[in-house]
Amino acid sequence: MTTKEYLELQINDLTGAIPKSIGALSSLYHFSVYNNILGGTVPEEFYALTSLKHIDLTANYFSGSISSKIGDLDDLINIYYGENLFDGSIPEEIGYLSALEVLDLHGNYISGHIPDTLDGLKNMTECVLFSNDITGSIPYSLFHAESLEILALSANRIEGHLSSRFDDLVNLREIYLWDNMITGTLPDDFANLEFLEHLEFNNNEITGRVPDEICEMNLDTLYADCKGIPPEVACTCCTLCWD
Fold first, then answer.
1. Which own/partner pairs from 213-220 qualify as long-range (CB within 8 Å, at least 24 positions apart)?
2. How many structural domains compose the chain?
């Protein structure tokens, strides 16, 4: 065993894979290999490092599915797995990580539904899942993530209507939903999100109009499919209109 606690090897052109011997670093709480040329699957031994609080594998070539054993990392605060080759579904065990603040899986090949176990993520401030192949609707469990500030689900295959329960997420500042298969209308409940600055829902199947109450919020960005004649979404205050 070793007492190595902090390992940061970002932007080093490292190649190869994470060795199974990583499991010997029993005190490791911070692991970052951001922006290298590493690949292969993440070994199961990695998920035995129960002191881990911060994992950053962003911008590499890691592949395979995310192990359900990630749910054993009770102290985990940040998961940065973006811009890799991960596939499979999001393990429901992620919903058991009550200390989690950042879940960033963007830019992979992740499929399946967003798990319906996220109601335990009371401390999550960022849920960043854009540019994957996620299907299904936004689960109701997500609306219990009361600390959420950034929700980025763009460029997936998410469907269904937008729930009026979005206003349960009282701390939301940024909502990115563009390029999905969402239907229905934009609920006026979004106007109850007093901290909201960015709302982008273009390139969906949403119709109707942007409620006046949302226009009165003077958002920094408000994107909708409001360019056609007639537009799919009538909007007098959008900062950018799409066909």
1. 213/188, 214/186, 214/188, 214/190, 216/191, 217/191
2. 1
Structural domain contains residue 1: no
Which three-class secondary structure state does DSSP give residue 157? strand
Per-residue tokens: 231: 């537009």
45, burial (CB in 10 Å: exposed 0-12, middle 13-18, buried 19+)? middle
CB 154 within 8 A of CB 129: no
Residue 16 resides in a domain: yes
In a domain, 175, yes or no: yes
Enter the tokens of residue 174: 């940024």
Global pTM?
0.96
Residue 116 lies in a domain: yes
Q: What is the CATH number of the domain that holds 210?
A: 3.80.10.10
The residue segments making up the domain with residue 207 are 6-241
> Which pLDDT tens digits describe the chain residue by residue (243 residues)?
456 799 999 999 999 999 999 999 999 999 999 999 999 999 999 999 999 999 999 999 999 999 999 999 999 999 999 999 999 999 999 999 999 999 999 999 999 999 999 999 999 999 999 999 999 999 999 999 999 999 999 999 999 999 999 999 999 999 999 999 999 999 999 999 999 999 999 999 999 999 999 999 999 999 999 998 899 999 999 999 998
